[in-house]
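Re: [ENG-882] Designed sequences occasionally contain unexpected residues at chain ends

Forwarding the minimal case from QA. Structure tokens:
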């Protein structure tokens, strides 16, 4: 039985190597250049997966405990806050995966990300665009329960903040929520799954936003 606020609202923890969200790796593999800075790398799970695919990656985070794990796993990584210890345009691509919703001085980290990138900055955040509708139906996304989120983005606000620093910005909704997840293994469950699989019905809600922001 849940007894305290801390049983529900907990800080978001970095993904561990081998337990990472593979959609992020596919997203990076599609859009990133050869030399990558993983800004807010945590345990380095996404960089390590990209290294295995042939990318050259460096991690950066302010949390020393996270970095110790990343370095032990074989990722070159540094501890740093702004300004970053890299010259302008040092990397083809900078990753900010599930980072900026946690950072109060959001403009500072974005300014530094675009400064050290040559090609683009890839950013993911939780999608907050349908929160009022979901709340009205007693539903919310699990990652909205992270106690250390300080910014909440819909596609419009996400685009505006990135366009302050980027050239072109392309944003996609990702990680759809399928209604059949909430059904028992029944005829209805399998029928809905077939409809969505063959795109006869399209998802209405998406839990994450993905952005490809090019450098000016």
């Amino acid at each position: 039985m849940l007894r305290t606020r801390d049983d529900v609202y907990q800080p978001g923890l970095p993904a561990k190597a081998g337990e990472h969200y593979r959609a992020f790796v596919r997203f990076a593999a599609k859009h990133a250049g050869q030399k990558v800075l993983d800004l807010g790398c945590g345990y380095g799970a996404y960089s390590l997966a990209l290294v295995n695919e042939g990318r050259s990656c460096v991690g950066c985070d302010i949390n020393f405990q996270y970095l110790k794990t990343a370095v032990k796993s074989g990722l070159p990584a540094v501890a740093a806050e702004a300004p970053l210890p890299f010259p302008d345009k040092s990397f083809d691509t900078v990753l900010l995966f599930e980072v900026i919703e946690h950072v109060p001085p959001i403009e500072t980290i974005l300014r530094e990300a675009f400064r050290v990138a040559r090609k683009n900055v890839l950013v993911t955040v939780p999608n907050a665009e349908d929160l009022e509708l979901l709340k009205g139906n007693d539903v919310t996304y699990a990652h909205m329960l992270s106690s250390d989120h300080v910014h909440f983005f819909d596609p419009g606000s996400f685009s505006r903040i990135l366009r302050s620093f980027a050239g072109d910005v392309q944003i996609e909704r990702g990680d759809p929520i399928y209604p059949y997840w909430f059904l028992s293994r029944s005829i209805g469950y399998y029928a809905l799954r077939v409809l969505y699989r063959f795109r006869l019905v399209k998802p209405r809600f998406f839990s994450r936003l993905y952005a490809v922001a090019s450098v000016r």
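QA comment: On inspection the terminal residues look reasonable. The two ends are 52 Å apart (CA to CA). Proposing we downgrade this to a documentation issue.
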